[in-house]
Amino acid sequence: MSNELRKAKLKLDFENGFQLSPDLSAKDALEALLRAIRDGDVSEVKIAAEYYDGSEKDYEEDAEDDDASEELAVALDEGYEDEEDEDEEDEE
């Protein structure tokens, strides 16, 4: 079962640093971060999610769990694509 998300905070730790231009748009920065998660450049991922029903959930993955990190990146990417689709529909 999925609940409607109200707010989420994403924290990524990079073992070897990560280059991210301050000139990027929010969308491009998020895409770069998702690629970094997918490519295994992130040593730890933490997500604090708050739902409209008042419940909260913390998600945490580290580099030793490569499959989980990849699954998390795919899930984040799919959610982001769904949001883009909704934005495009709103513009029409």
Topology:
Layout lengths: L4 E9 L12 H13 L5 E8 L4 E7 L3 H26 L1
Antiparallel strand pairs: 1-2, 2-3
Could you please describe the fold and organization of this structure?
This is DNA primase. Strands 1-2-3 form a three-stranded antiparallel β-sheet, covered by helices on one side. Helix 1 (26-38) runs antiparallel to helix 2 (66-91). The model has no long low-confidence stretch (mean pLDDT 79). The chain has helices at 26-38, 66-91; strands at residues 5-13, 44-51, 56-62. A hairpin with a 4-residue loop joins strand 2 (44-51) and strand 3. With 92 residues, the protein is an alpha+beta fold.
Short description:
The protein is α+β, with helices and mostly antiparallel strands and 92 residues long.
